[in-house]
Amino acid sequence: MPSDQPEPVFLTVDEVIRLHDFSIERHGGAHGIRDLGLITSATLAAAQTFGGEFLCKTIEDMAATYWCNLAQNHGFLDGNKRTGVIAAIAFLERNGLTLNVGDEELYEVAMLVAERGISKDAVAQFIARHLITLDP
Model confidence over 32-49: pLDDT tens digits? Predict the structure, then answer.
């Protein structure tokens, strides 16, 4: 992260599980965790560092990491695509940002992510194009 940017505030594994549970309650699907290790690794990847530097260099990269890893790791029994999208947006909102994008386009990208038809870098670019600052 550039030195003029505040440290990002990351999601915890428990928060991601709660986001998933909320999504299942609201939109339906099977409750449950298939593999907690996959959920944990997908969640913690955005905050990984090496030599004191974040491996994900931008907030967009971090959000894309949540989105892609949670959607593709299949740690939950159901709702992995939704959880990836929701976690990315929750992370952005926690850091004063959000996406300004229509549901249809968001759905199309979510499907590409799930099918591995789009790279994590391309997801980060998509996020960057639609990123807006939340009013304080």
Answer: 999 999 999 999 999 999
